[in-house]
From TrEMBL:
Identification of the protein by name: ABC transporter domain-containing protein
Lineage: Bacteria, Bacillati, Actinomycetota, Actinomycetes, Micrococcales
The ABC transporter domain, residue ranges: 6-73
Pfam families assigned: ABC_tran
Domain of life (superkingdom): Bacteria
Source organism of the structure: Nostocoides vanveenii
Length: 83
């Protein structure tokens, strides 16, 4: 599955309207600098990109609270600063 497909699947599982999920997927892909990689299969992502898509997936439903366990483990130094 691609990064965008993963986001759409999780949005569907949350029961969010499809149009909302599509718009939100674009937002989080852009926020985590994954817009260009959104159409690529996730298993081809680097470790840092996988961590960023994990965070994007966790934010797709606009949670009011999100507990993260070491979110900066894995990404390269530039991505850590970005996160």
């Amino acid at each position: 599955m691609t990064g965008r497909e993963n986001l759409l699947l999780i949005g569907d599982l949350y029961g969010l309207p499809r149009r909302v999920v599509r718009a939100r997927a674009g937002e989080v892909l852009d926020r985590f600098s994954l817009t260009d990689a959104g159409g690529k299969v996730v298993k081809t992502y680097s470790g840092g990109m996988r961590r960023r898509i994990d965070l994007a997936v966790s934010l797709i439903a606009h949670p009011s609270v999100l507990f993260l366990d070491e979110p900066t483990t894995g990404p390269d130094p530039r991505s850590r600063v970005e996160l």
